TrEMBL record:
<dbReference type="GO" id="GO:0000214">
    <property type="term" value="C:tRNA-intron endonuclease complex"/>
</dbReference>
<keyword id="KW-0255">Endonuclease</keyword>
<feature type="active site">
    <location>
        <position position="248"/>
    </location>
</feature>
<keyword id="KW-0456">Lyase</keyword>
<dbReference type="Pfam" id="PF26577">
    <property type="entry name" value="TSEN34_N"/>
</dbReference>
<dbReference type="InterPro" id="IPR006677">
    <property type="entry name" value="tRNA_intron_Endonuc_cat-like"/>
</dbReference>
<dbReference type="InterPro" id="IPR011856">
    <property type="entry name" value="tRNA_endonuc-like_dom_sf"/>
</dbReference>
<feature type="domain" description="TSEN34 N-terminal">
    <location>
        <begin position="10"/>
        <end position="78"/>
    </location>
</feature>
<dbReference type="GO" id="GO:0000213">
    <property type="term" value="F:tRNA-intron lyase activity"/>
</dbReference>
<dbReference type="GO" id="GO:0003676">
    <property type="term" value="F:nucleic acid binding"/>
</dbReference>
<dbReference type="GO" id="GO:0000379">
    <property type="term" value="P:tRNA-type intron splice site recognition and cleavage"/>
</dbReference>
<keyword id="KW-0378">Hydrolase</keyword>
<protein>
    <recommendedName>
        <fullName>tRNA-splicing endonuclease subunit Sen34</fullName>
        <ecNumber>4.6.1.16</ecNumber>
    </recommendedName>
</protein>
<keyword id="KW-0819">tRNA processing</keyword>
<dbReference type="InterPro" id="IPR036167">
    <property type="entry name" value="tRNA_intron_Endo_cat-like_sf"/>
</dbReference>
<dbReference type="Pfam" id="PF01974">
    <property type="entry name" value="tRNA_int_endo"/>
</dbReference>
<keyword id="KW-0540">Nuclease</keyword>
């Protein structure tokens, strides 16, 4: 199982300059094995204006996508060109297979919808019968039971008479056949992924940092982010606290953030105002202010597992 997890390749969809992941299994794999949370950006198709509860896809920062590519745990796919090539290509069998997969999803959605309707209908009928029984007095209930019994007897007698007439030699009326039930139309669906249409992970892009798309992944904060990730820290966007990252000692579902982090260049001057505001704000929200930079290789840095050395400092404001 561990080997299968290590061999899994996360498909990172590049769409309009953004890096998105649509597969829920990839999302779980990134969070569990690579410490990458990313940001939920999807909305409901029927209510696109809602922004309280977001869902798939998740959006990766450039440094998160580059980390997966460098670790050979993911690859970047140009979704526009791949979708167009698959939809307009000469492979008729692939298009038919994709259409059949959509029909299967629609049938599954229809079955689930009908099952839910049947449950609701049975629940309402049960409540209605219980309400009628509660309103009836014992005498009325006995009379209704007698009426039901007499009705059943009359119906049985009528059925027996019809049976005798049906056995007559001179009976010409054929038995009525039940009308064929019309099949209700399948509901429309919005597929969350198009994995049935696309080809599996192409070998030429797996972990290939020299590819054209991987070359674009060179954010200045990548060494700092890689340093935090290599030491088991989880990160989320730190905009709410005025920083680059909120840094957690474990999964954010289990821990509060311990640090408010910013990345700088090695020779970049850090304004005193940044130190004061970030330090005081971090301390006010029970976090330390963490900042760091990558040491250039020509200054005697010792190369580590992830590349050049990264120097990190932590500031906590006293007297608050």
């Amino acid at each position: 199982m561990a080997a299968a997890a290590s061999e899994r390749q996360v498909r990172i969809s590049r769409i309009a300059g953004r890096y998105l992941v649509f597969d829920i299994e990839d999302v779980v794999h990134m969070r569990r094995h690579h410490g990458i949370c990313a940001v939920l950006t999807g909305t409901m198709p029927q209510n696109p204006t809602q922004n309280l509860f977001l869902g798939l896809p998740i959006e990766l920062h450039a440094e998160e996508a580059k980390l997966l590519v460098d670790k050979k745990a993911g690859y970047i796919a140009d979704e526009l060109s791949e979708h167009l090539s698959r939809l307009t290509g000469p492979d008729e069998a692939a298009r038919k297979a994709y259409i059949q997969s959509l029909k299967r999803q629609r049938r599954a959605a229809h079955a689930a919808f009908e099952e839910e309707k049947a449950k609701v209908r049975a629940q309402h009928q049960g409540k209605r019968k219980a309400g009628k029984k509660a309103k009836q007095t014992p005498a009325v209930a006995a009379e209704s039971a007698e009426d039901d019994a007499s009705t059943i007897g009359v119906a049985a007698a009528a059925a027996a008479a019809e049976g005798e007439q049906g056995e007559s030699l001179f009976s010409t009326a054929p038995p009525k056949q039940p009308a064929a039930a019309r099949e209700s139309p399948l509901p429309g669906i919005t597929p969350t992924t198009s994995s049935d249409l696309l080809l599996p992970c192409p070998a030429r892009t797996v972990g290939d940092s020299s590819s054209s798309m991987a070359k674009d992944l060179s954010p200045s904060s990548y060494p700092f982010y890689r340093y935090l990730n290599s030491r088991g820290y989880y990160t989320t966007p730190g905009l709410r606290f005025g920083g680059d990252y909120s840094v957690y000692p474990g999964d954010p579902f289990r821990y509060h953030a311990h640090y408010l982090a910013n990345s700088y260049g090695w020779d970049e001057e850090i304004p005193m105002l940044d130190l004061v505001t970030s330090g005081r704000l971090g301390t006010a929200v029970k976090k330390s202010f963490l900042f760091g930079a990558e040491k250039p290789a020509n200054e005697g840095a010792v190369a580590g597992a992830g590349g050049s050395e990264v120097r990190v400092f932590c500031v906590e404001w006293a007297g608050m």
